[in-house]
Specification:
This protein is α+β, with helices and mostly antiparallel strands. It is built from four helices and six strands, in the order ααβααβββββ. The chain has one domain.
């Protein structure tokens, strides 16, 4: 009996399969987590570029119409590609003007499936500016905000569940108009 136990103890056949069975879930988890984190970082970069691109394009205009703003939004869609902002997010462009020592949202446009709400306020209302930021009388700024509802690629009880959960990503860009003190907008 002892001889059979010793032979079994020395037998190394199948040890590779056991090691693989222990290592495969760990390796798979690392690979899928890496893919998810890379996708999250890429999406954040796309949102930052989209915000800056749309704000830069709007700030170069002296006057804008609704159709021209739609064309500028299309440029933002190209920057966001392959992520679909129309299905999972919102781009909001606002013009904020300084009047009588306070700031107000002069006009605002949005594109996407979001509620169209801006963290800076609604068109015609007082603007909620970041602390320490002021818009002088007769000056204006162009504010672009991008909201995106991030959905993890690998979700629902898997190995990488909880690496990055569902979250709303947000970025903003503030530019001064380049060729005028205030961009005129006609819908």
């Amino acid at each position: 009996m002892m001889r059979a136990w010793m032979a079994l103890w020395r037998d190394r056949r199948g040890s590779m399969a056991i090691e693989l069975a222990f290592a495969a879930p760990v390796v798979l988890c690392l690979i899928l987590s890496g893919v998810e984190i890379t996708r999250y970082v890429l999406l954040n970069q796309k949102i930052e570029r989209t915000t800056a691109t749309v704000a830069d394009l709007v700030s170069q205009a002296e006057t804008l119409t609704g159709a021209e703003v739609d064309n500028l939004f299309r440029a933002g869609l190209f920057v966001m590609d392959p992520f679909d902002i129309l299905a999972s997010g919102d781009i909001v462009v606002s013009s904020i003007v300084g009047e009588n020592g306070s700031a107000r949202v002069d006009w605002q446009r949005n594109l996407g499936q979001g509620d169209g709400g801006s963290r800076f306020g609604a068109a015609g209302a007082a603007a909620a500016l970041p602390p320490g930021f002021a818009v002088g009388d007769g000056e204006s700024i162009v504010v672009t905000e991008v909201f995106f509802e991030y959905q993890p690629m690998f979700n629902g009880g898997g190995l990488v569940d909880g690496v990055i959960g569902q979250v709303e990503l947000y970025n903003t860009a503030l530019f001064r108009p380049r060729f005028t003190s205030r961009i005129a907008y006609t819908p």
